[in-house]
Write a structure and sequence with these properties.
mainly alpha; elongated; 6 helices; single chain; Ferritin; DUF305_CopM-like; 0% strand
């Protein structure tokens, strides 16, 4: 092989190597960009519901305890219900699943009605003798909502169901605390309703997630 042919062959090999390297870098950059975009979208979906949950938790703990079990329960549960209503309204603006659509509408209707009932007791001022034990138990009942291991999905339907399960569980646990320490007949009945109905709704959401 002549020197000229050898030089041309080396030049061709070198050019081919540079071309393959360039294409490989472009593919890597594209994959990295797609991965970044995927994480960004996942984060945005997560934040839609997570922000509402965080806002709700802040509002639940913002007011100073009055020391009256009926009033303190009502204030905290009102904010808890408002959080569920906002999450349901967010879902209805974006969802695609008919079962969750009906679920969210029921949450809005039922919990708005319960909010109005609880408003009657939020301004009671007389001190409850067991207020310290009640406050401790009430704060512990919200542990389910503080779970950082809640699975994050890429669509709002699944994220709604995944977030609403611990949200409902905290409502059930709060209601059980009130049933132990509360005095008002209407609030006691409300708490029994919450335990029964929201426990059923938790099962409904768990079943929905399992089949999707």
């Amino acid at each position: 092989m002549t020197q000229d042919k050898l030089f041309k062959m080396k030049k061709l090999i070198l050019l081919t190597s540079f071309t393959l390297l360039f294409l490989s870098c472009q593919k890597s950059e594209k994959t990295a960009a797609e991965t970044s975009d995927h994480h960004q979208k996942t984060s945005e979906v997560k934040n839609d519901m997570a922000v509402l949950m965080d806002e709700m938790m802040d509002k639940m703990h913002a007011p100073k305890s009055i020391g009256n079990n009926d009033a303190d329960f009502s204030k905290m549960m009102i904010e808890h219900h408002i959080g569920a209503v906002k999450m349901s309204e967010l879902l209805l603006n974006k969802e695609k699943d008919s079962e969750l659509n009906a679920f969210a509408q029921n949450v809005i209707a039922a919990q708005n009605k319960e909010i109005e009932l609880m408003k009657k007791f939020q301004n009671k001022t007389e001190l409850s003798p067991d207020r310290e034990q009640f406050q401790l138990a009430l704060n512990q009942s919200m542990g389910a909502m503080m779970n950082k291991e809640i699975k994050v999905y890429e669509d709002i339907d699944h994220n709604f169901a995944a977030q609403m399960i611990p949200h409902h569980q905290s409502a059930v646990d709060m209601a059980k605390v009130y049933l132990k320490y509360g005095q008002e007949k209407e609030l006691l009945q409300l708490s029994e309703d919450i335990v029964r109905e929201q426990s059923l709704e938790i099962t409904q959401l768990q079943n929905w997630l399992a089949k999707k």
